[in-house]
Amino acid sequence: MEKQELEKLLREVAAGRCPVDRALGALRHWPGEMLGCAHLDHQRRLRTGTPEVVYGEGKSAEQIGLIMEKLLETGEMALATRVDEEKAAAVRSILPGLIYHQQARMLTTGLPAIDPARCRGKILVISAGTSDEPVAEEAAVTAACLAQPVERLYDVGVAGIHRLLGRRHLLDEAAVLIVVAGMEGALPSVVGGLVDKPLIAVPTSVGYGTCFGGIAALLGMLNSCAPGVTVVNIDNGFGAACAAGTINRRT
Fold first, then answer.
1. pTM of the entire structure?
2. Which domains are assigned to the chain?
3. Segment 215-233, tens digit of pLDDT
């Protein structure tokens, strides 16, 4: 339940327009609800600004479907990450209204409307190469689910830096940047030297043997000579989007 919804409910009770028993019914699972496979945190959006999200890897389709169904019952947005196509199809047979974002490997309800007054500006998601796009899409879809305006700039890595410089206006227009790169992870340092905005770097596990599953990119980003670059975990587009949404959200 969002802060605005809770405030509205309390005001209606105070004004006598909503009976107490109806309000109690609306809050019956608040702040948490124990299921057989999970303990849902219905207060998370109110407490942190980010709703409860289902991490789909390692969960069965039945478990994901049950959790998302309960989230929908409370009026929450339902979002699941790291869901493969086969599992997504099974979940959608239970909840046909869900949308599957294939490249991002995410299941969501419809994207919420964006209120520009509640955002500082756009979040720009940049990827170095096409192979990095699944992680970049996880970031972009997550940010959109958090009601943030998102723009994408893909396949502009340092091997052809003119591709990035040719779209310099997008960097200047963004309020927050998420930069996704594998291999040696150089792109966030380049972008960090061009902008005066918050920049969140996401190393990916893309690369040949000595990339060590993304550790080379992670270490490169952590050692960036561009000051102020913030780095999240390998392949963690979701976490980067949550951080970017918190920065971009007007309180």
1. 0.82
2. 31-108 (no CATH), 116-248 (3.40.50.1970)
3. 999 999 999 999 999 999 9
